[in-house]
Amino acid sequence: MRKTLMITLVLLVSAAWLQAQDSMSNSGPTTITGCLATVGNHYTLTDSSGKVYQLSDEANKLTKHVGHEVKITGMPGVRTRDTTQQGTESSVKETPVIKVKTVTHIADKCQ
Questions:
Q1: Which residue would you say has higher pLDDT here, 15 or 77?
Q2: pLDDT interval class at 3 (50, 70, 90)
Q3: Which residues pair with 46 in a beta bridge?
Q4: Rounded to whole angstroms, how far apart are CA atoms 111 and 107?
Q5: CA-angle at 105, arms to 100 and 107, nearest 5°
Q6: Per-residue pLDDT, 84
Q7: FRET label pair with 33: which of 2, 40, 56, 63, CA 20 to 30 Å apart?
Q8: DSSP string covering 17-28, please?
Q9: DSSP string over 32-79
Q10: What's the longest Cα–Cα distance across the chain?
């Protein structure tokens, strides 16, 4: 019983630690061109290969460009989220994130 409780506690602490962990790259700014959209309360950028980036910061600069093709420059990173369902193996989902510094309008419609 004590062993089961300890394992459960360790798993819960690990899941909480992974839940909303963001890591930004030390490689410097990157620039990505794509289609700007909103999903819920989040902004996303989909590049020409179909890769989707979640955008953070500068929401006031992004709002007027939703549905447009834009060039985003910012710091790349990864958002790690625990997706483990109770009673199953531990799983984690990683989402590419760009911390937006600048937005450049390319076209009124996405290609």
A1: 77
A2: low
A3: 35, 52
A4: 9
A5: 135
A6: 74
A7: 40
A8: HHHTEEEE-SS-
A9: EEEEEEEETTEEEEEETT--EEEEES-HHHHGGGTTSEEEEEEEEEEE
A10: 62
Q: What is the CATH number of the domain that holds 81?
A: 2.40.50
Query: Per residue in 75-89, is it b (16+ CB within 10 Å) or e — as a string?
Result: bbbeebebeeeeeee
- Domain with 8, as residue range(s), is 2-107
Q: How far apart are CA 82 and CA 106, in angstroms?
A: 35
Domain count, the chain: 1
Q: What is the pTM of this model?
A: 0.67
In one-letter notation, the amino acid at residue 63 is: T
C-alpha span between 12 and 33 (Å, rounded): 39
Q: What is the pLDDT of residues 28-84, one digit of tens each?
A: 899 999 999 998 888 999 999 999 999 988 877 898 999 999 999 999 998 887 777
- Residue 58 is encoded by which pair of tokens? 């500068």
